[in-house]
């Protein structure tokens, strides 16, 4: 097996990361299918079928308005994927920009960026989202931007020391001696070598984005009532948990499995891309205990 495909094979070999890959693939597939087909219109109200139990044709039952819960979950998967990808893109742009400025610029700029990052890290993601929503109103864009900013700072904090470490490597010095500019060195040598650390942070950022969207929608700061959302559905159904407890299980289970899958995928990526963990695992597998007579 070539070296290029070695780490995906190791990632799939781990049971935890394999579970994460399968869960994320299912959520992504459901989100794509929901664009073209849904069992029922998630906005359609059918009073005659209020609180229908799981069965046919409502596989997961209906809510207090007669809406099909399975259709609401499928439509909500679209929102979840959109928020996770959008927050991931913003976190990537902000994280890489701050990390590059904090690693490749002059000393006073580097120190200013480090202080700026430390200040922003003091603000939790949910607090940033509530502050932004207080000005612009609750929407999915509030969740995407706030999570992207909040976790982009975390990405910068972790990636910046790695960039500084790789910056003093022999191949980077050789590239500089051959006439490469700092930004050419960044694209050709630095970013590929810090990509494993960055990918792990990005997977965790997407997990936080899913959880933040559900939490903010539950509190009324996220998706508007017209948008399908797992958090919004959970907020609507939790008032009836004592009467219809099964209906609350489905959105809660969807949120839990998606966040768990992204976190386990991030852990697996860390295990297969961190050379120290890889060497430690290989040493443990090849160690043969001595037999004491």
**Which CATH class?**
Mainly Alpha
One letter per element, helices H and strands E, the order comes to HHHHHHHHHHH
From the 3D structure, determine the CATH topology: MetI-like fold
Distance between the termini: 41 Å
* Secondary structure tally, helices: 11
Taking the sheet with the most strands, its summary is:
none
Report the C-alpha radius of gyration, rounded: 23 Å
Tertiary shape: elongated
β-strand amount: under 5%
Number of strands: 0
**Helix content bin:** over 70%
Instruction: Name the average pLDDT.
Output: 79
CATH H level, superfamily name: MetI-like
What is the CATH architecture descriptor?
A: Orthogonal Bundle
The total tally of domains equals 1
* Structural class based on helices, strands and sheet pairing: mainly alpha
Low-pLDDT regions: 279-293
Domain ABC transmembrane type-1: 77-266
Family: Belongs to the binding-protein-dependent transport system permease family.
Subcellular location: Cell membrane
Membrane topology: Multi-pass membrane protein
Describe this entry's structure for a reader:
This protein is mostly helical and 293 residues long. The chain has a single domain, classed as MetI-like fold (Orthogonal Bundle). It contains eleven helices and no strands. The C terminus is likely disordered. Keywords: Cell membrane, Membrane, Transmembrane, Transmembrane helix, Transport. It is a multi-pass membrane protein. Its main location: membrane.
